[in-house]
Design goal:
Blueprint: E1 2-3, H1 9-20, E2 24-26, H2 27-37, H3 40-50, H4 57-68, E3 78-80, H5 86-95, E4 104-108, H6 111-120, E5 122-124, E6 130-131, E7 146-147, H7 154-168, H8 170-175, E8 181-185, H9 190-207
Parallel strand pairs: 1-4, 2-3, 4-8
Antiparallel strand pairs: 5-6, 5-7
Helix pairs in contact: 1-9, 2-3, 4-5, 6-7
């Protein structure tokens, strides 16, 4: 799943994973849990997240490599937040050798819409679950209080979008020539985006993708 911060990658990744019976692998969630746990990785991640930057390639690649060896990921997976750089994309190609072709979905949303979405987002202060924009008080997963994400402040939001343009947007050029690449209009209701993604997956599989 590709797309700028706030494009809806997490929501759509969860839906795809649930329908296809595969795990959603979110590097952002893994890193936020590490921050909350106070691990060494969490300390590194906190510094990067609080400044609106990306966590280093080596650390993220190691996280994903370990996660994709888990038994539940053997039949497929949905990646949310990885890859974010060409270095990570190249590493992913190596990780999925003999596992089938990647289906790459780029969710496209206008920048002004993204800024509004990000400013409205909340996260559970207990379990780290992202909350829907409609949720105002408690986490739907554990009931914990919702707070603004530390990386969703106005200044940090704009810095994150700049980081995306500088470091992550080249991934579209990297993947666009592949027959399994599809661009999705993310500036519509979540259910409409889901339907567009379902259609894109079917087309990508027919064009040369493999599995789910």
């Amino acid at each position: 799943m590709l797309g700028q911060p706030g494009a809806g990658k997490g929501t759509q990744a969860e839906r795809i994973a649930a329908r296809h019976g595969v795990p959603k692998v979110s590097t952002g969630e893994i890193l936020r849990r590490a921050v909350q746990a106070g691990t060494r990785l969490g300390g590194t991640a906190r510094h990067a997240i609080d400044s609106g930057n990306l966590v280093g390639d080596d650390a993220v690649i190691c996280i994903v490599k370990e996660r994709l060896t888990s038994p539940d990921a053997r039949s497929g997976f949905v990646l949310d937040g990885f890859p974010r750089t060409i270095v990570q994309a190249s590493a992913l190609d190596d990780l999925v050798v003999r596992r089938g072709a990647l289906i790459v979905l780029d969710i496209v949303v206008p920048e002004d819409v993204l800024v509004h979405r990000l400013a409205s987002r909340r996260i559970c202060s207990l379990c780290g679950e992202n909350a829907s924009i409609e949720a105002k008080r408690a986490c739907a997963k554990c009931g914990g209080p919702l707070v603004t994400r530390t990386d969703d402040g106005a200044g940090i939001v704009r810095e994150r979008l700049k980081v995306y343009q500088r470091q992550t947007k080249p991934l579209v050029e990297y993947y666009a020539p592949r027959v399994t690449f599809r661009s999705i209009d993310g500036n519509q209701a979540p259910d409409a985006v889901t339907r567009a993604i379902d259609t894109a997956i079917v087309e990508a599989v027919a064009a040369g993708g493999a599995g789910s």
